[in-house]
């Protein structure tokens, strides 16, 4: 086989692997329409940097009308990162079947971290797991090195869901780790936005970052709009800010609004 034919063979092989990864990722990312709740409205946006990426989200409906939501960002891009998200999906699905674990966001993340670390060394990812509890009007969360989530209260005040755990994958380098959950009131009219760093790190031609401050300002300026409208306005504002700069990372945005 000459060099030209060998090159064409490798390109065709890569394209086939990429197509497989794309099909796999389409299947593990839930469709927005599959989130059906009497208590919450849901928004999602996912745009890989390449044809596949390392941003991931999933949700699981629980007893007592509770909902568990997970957003994660694997390091790297492309097929390798997409394979990690597939492993996160598998671990999350099995973890949510274990009632000893699935009531605690931090224990959910601990189990996923353990599962991934047993299969792949030096695999790192950030994540937020949260449990929505509409009957008691609370949400419980654990943030493992992920960008702050933004909570817009019904009085239009902003609260941040900051990290309370390190990035997942670092446990192997630590002697001990204390996993714990955070609790915050989440009631009628409140809106929550979660996103990966591809949103706030997006740059314009002047190398300015879109920033969490800009995202917070957009949310406050559009506070009276429904969650879908605010989410779409964030996407449009980021696109306009970049001024046709090519993407450099995956972007995932999730929004949850408590039904009034």
From TrEMBL:
Transmembrane stretches, start-end: none
Keywords of this entry: Hydrolase
Protein name: Phosphoserine phosphatase
Molecular function terms from GO: phosphatase activity
Its EC number(s): 3.1.3.3
Domain PPM-type phosphatase: 37-258
């Amino acid at each position: 086989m000459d060099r030209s034919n060998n090159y064409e063979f490798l390109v065709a092989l890569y394209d086939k692997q990429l197509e497989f990864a794309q099909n796999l990722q389409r299947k593990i990312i839930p469709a927005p329409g599959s989130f059906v709740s009497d208590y919450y409205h849901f928004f999602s946006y996912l745009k890989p940097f390449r044809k596949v990426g390392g941003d991931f989200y999933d949700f699981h409906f629980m007893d007592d009308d509770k909902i568990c939501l997970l957003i994660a960002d694997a390091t790297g891009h492309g097929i390798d990162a997409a394979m990690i998200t597939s492993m996160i999906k598998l671990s999350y699905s099995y973890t949510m079947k274990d009632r000893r674990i699935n009531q605690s966001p931090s224990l959910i993340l601990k189990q996923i971290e353990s599962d991934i670390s047993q299969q792949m060394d030096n695999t790192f990812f950030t994540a937020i797991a949260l449990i929505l509890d509409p009957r008691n009007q609370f949400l419980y969360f654990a943030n493992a090195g992920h960008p702050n989530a933004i909570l817009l209260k019904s009085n239009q005040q902003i609260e941040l869901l900051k990290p309370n755990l390190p990035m997942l994958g670092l446990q192997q380098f630590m002697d001990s780790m204390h996993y714990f959950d955070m609790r915050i009131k989440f009631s009628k009219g409140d809106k929550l936005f979660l996103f990966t760093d591809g949103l706030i790190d997006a740059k314009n031609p002047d190398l300015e970052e879109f920033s969490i401050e800009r995202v917070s300002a957009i949310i406050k300026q559009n506070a009276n709009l429904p969650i879908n409208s605010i989410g779409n306005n964030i996407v449009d504002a980021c696109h306009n800010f970049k001024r046709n700069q090519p993407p450099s990372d995956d972007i995932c945005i999730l929004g949850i609004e408590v039904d009034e």
